[in-house]
Amino acid sequence: MKQAAKPFQFMAASTLVRICGVEVRTVADLLEHLRTISAASVFNHTFQSLGQHHFLTEGFSNDFAQWVLAACNQPQLAEQLTSLDIRQYESVEALRADLLRVLEEFVASEPARAQQRAFEPFYFCEAVTVTVPAPWRAHNLAEFCQGLEHISRETLHYHFVDARLREPLTVNDFSYWLEDSLGLKELGDRVDLIDIYTNTLDGVRQLILEECRSWTEA
User: 103 and 150 in one domain?
Assistant: First the structure.
């Protein structure tokens, strides 16, 4: 079996969340605070939220859209906010810019509805991810599959979702390693195409394993 140029080190990941002390009660307020809130907070309510609600394969994939629907009763705006595919973003600031654009258009076209008081407030929170090396290290595809079977959902989220924001990557850690260290570009591309919106994290894990095992058995 082909050995990797560099082994893949799985990282045990844990996310710490803290409340920022910013309370929002209207869509207009959400827009204004989103301009200045920290990147860590934007990350928490989008990328990290996807991991927290990994068991949902339907509904809204970020906290902003969920609040706009449930607390503000603005389903069309919620759909616009959730239509932003986080897989396409290489920075939190690029995602923030598009979130702001959607909210600005709504506030400009629906000023009265943008000022309506929500049923419950939205609280901005920040997420900080702490990592340490996990017990699993892969030197080939078989060892990679073994490690993938054992890692936590938090670790899977860190490598498969969060990684897209870490320079110089624009793909997940797994696909990058498969191409860069094993020379398996086609397999890496297939793994990167796995949909994180229509699958749970456990479903993503199984799909990655199926793709990789099909190569080990070929």
Answer: no
Residues 149 and 101 in one domain: no
| Cβ(139)–Cβ(207) below 8 Å | no
Looking at residue 118, the DSSP 8-state letter turns out to be P
> In this structure, are residues 129 and 15 in contact, taking their beta carbons and an 8 Å threshold?
yes
CA–CA dist 209, 121 (Å, integer): 41
Rounded-to-integer distance, Cα 17 and Cα 58, Å = 24
**Strand segments (E) across the chain:** 8-24, 122-138
CA angle 77, 83, 87 (to 5 degrees): 145
Number of domains into which the chain is organized = 2
This prediction's pTM: 0.78
Q: What is the pLDDT of residues 31-64, one digit of tens each?
A: 999 999 998 899 889 888 766 554 444 556 789 9
